Amino acid sequence: MPKMASGGTEQPFVCVIIIHFKGLKMLKKCFESLFNTSYQNFRVVLLDNGSNDGSCEYVAKLFDGKVDLMRSNVNLGFSAGNNLALRHVRADYVVLLNDDVIVDPNWLGELVCEAERDPAIGACQPKLRSLREPGLFEYNGACGGMLDIYGVPLTRGRIFDLIEEDKGQYDKTVETFWASGAAFFLRGRALREVGLLDETYFMHMEEIDLCWRMRLFGYRVMSVPKSIVYHLGGGTPLPEKFYLKQRNNLITIIKNYSGWSLLRFLPLRTVQDCLSFIYFIIKKQTARAMPILTAYFWILKNPRPVLSSRYTVQSRRKVKDKCVTNTMVKKSVSIQHYLLRRRYFSQLSGLPLELKYYMATPSNAHS
């Protein structure tokens, strides 16, 4: 497949990559909405990720001339599947788009407009709403992703399993820590400089790792709520999802923190994980408890790939940790949510100043 170049118009050229593993109905709906996009200068690469049901061929034929079809004989997962496609494209911007989304017509233009405003923007994400319940934020990204200093992820609109209703409380375009992989908008130049997704992850948390690495190169990540995408989600079996998220989150922390920060934050994170394990055991939720143990066992059993990737990141970074932690939540989200009963993102303390300034008050946002 030839490498893509700029489309020759005033609009920046965007390559949208969709990897797919079985199922026609949702894929067809996704493409129907995608080709109703008002932004014109984009091309779609559809990667058949080891499926054998003919769904990719059907869609490629249905939208003949608009889709470049690639194939893998096996399911490579999210990271390796997207990397396979990324190695064959050249574009001003790239979007890694899940196959179970419906996009608003203006979704792509809003993302390009924001990225064009500042060359230091390495990644963006749209507002993600639930396709099942469109009035609610979507679990995997909501209105932009954050981390606390212990590496615990959350979003503007979802803390752990509590998902907020979208009442416009997060509609200001702001800098966040990470962008969701469900609709992951990336600057091509930044991606080439920082590197591709970490294929150790297979799926889950790879977008957080990539955004962290982008930050170590001085790039910013933005939430663009004027861009709206509806995401179905929930395709990964729960035990596997809990394990991969826990393991990959630990890998991300170990890779990207400096040695001093790792000594400060990892022991306290481990204590939090021990308390979580005990809590889930007491609640008889073994499907949530056991992945915590198996994730730590994997790290202990496989130090070489983790330390190797850490060496690569630390030897290439350009920004000190202080610049990175300034964009994190400074206080434990777990303690605030479970012990202090702060249910919503806007109620958290320790937020970056920009997010505090633009936050709607809890009484207005959640009444």
Compact overview of the structure:
This protein is an alpha/beta fold and 367 residues long.
Question: Could you walk me through the main structural features you see in this protein, from its secondary elements to its overall organization?
Answer:
This protein is α/β, with parallel strands linked by helices and 367 residues long. It folds into two domains: 1-99, Spore Coat Polysaccharide Biosynthesis Protein SpsA, Chain A (Alpha-Beta Complex), CATH 3.90.550.10; 101-367, no CATH class. 41% of the residues lie in helices and 19% in strands. It contains 14 helices and 13 strands. The strands form three sheets. Strands 1, 2, 3, 4, 5, 6, 11, 12 and 13 form a nine-stranded mixed β-sheet that branches. A hairpin with a 5-residue loop joins strand 7 and strand 8 (153-155). Helix 6 (206-216) runs parallel beside helix 7, helix 7 (238-256) packs across helix 9 and helix 8 (259-282) runs antiparallel to helix 9 (286-301). The chain is globular. The model is unreliable at 1-8 and 360-367 (pLDDT under 50).
Note the main sheet: 9 strands, mixed
Give, in order, the helices and strands: EHEHEHEEHEEEEEEEHHEHHHHHHHH
Radius of gyration: 20 Å
Mean pLDDT: 93
- How many strands? 13
**Count of domain modules:** 2
| Principal-axes shape call | globular
- Assembly form of the protein: single chain
Overall helicity: 40-55%
Strand content is 15-25%
**Count of DSSP-assigned helices:** 14
Structural class comes to alpha/beta
Low-confidence stretches: 1-8, 360-367
Distance between the termini: 53 Å
